[in-house]
Amino acid sequence: MQILGSYSYIPVSNLQEAARWYGKHLGLRVVREDELFLELRSASGVRVLLIGNDDARVTFHMNDSTGTQASYGFVVPDLREAHRQLAESGITVGSVTDYEALSFKFHDPDGNIVELWSDYPDPAAGWTVFEPLNGGQEEDS
């Protein structure tokens, strides 16, 4: 089996306003509208499904020993530039952390925690997140 991509559901109070926000700040564009959701995609094919959450009962995040963690993470090629752009646009961004890669968190208008992440090459592994593992070949199980 080969996995070609993935998608995430993000609960929002207003589909159209959230689509504009994610478009403005993360470059996602609406590719499909349904009465229950909007499908957004990035230029690289990342899929996000915005789902209605009018009563704010649905939240997606994780809690562990280090605090609340994002359930939505997106990989960007230049994390510090993304951090600067979001901060300049008025979004309160967290500090850049360096654990297995560079990352930072921020909230969307509905309070969802979003994380941006940027890999750095791992000479021992011989690859980065921007390259397929094993040259794109499936491993035998």
Automatic annotation (TrEMBL):
Residue span, VOC domain: 3-119
Alphabetical list of InterPro entries matching this protein: Glyas_Bleomycin-R_OHBP_Dase, Glyas_Fos-R_dOase_dom, VOC_core
Domain of life according to the entry: Bacteria
UniProt cross-references to Pfam families, sorted A to Z: Glyoxalase
Family matches, as PROSITE patterns: VOC
Protein name, per record: VOC family protein
Phylogenetic lineage: Bacteria, Bacillati, Bacillota, Bacilli, Bacillales
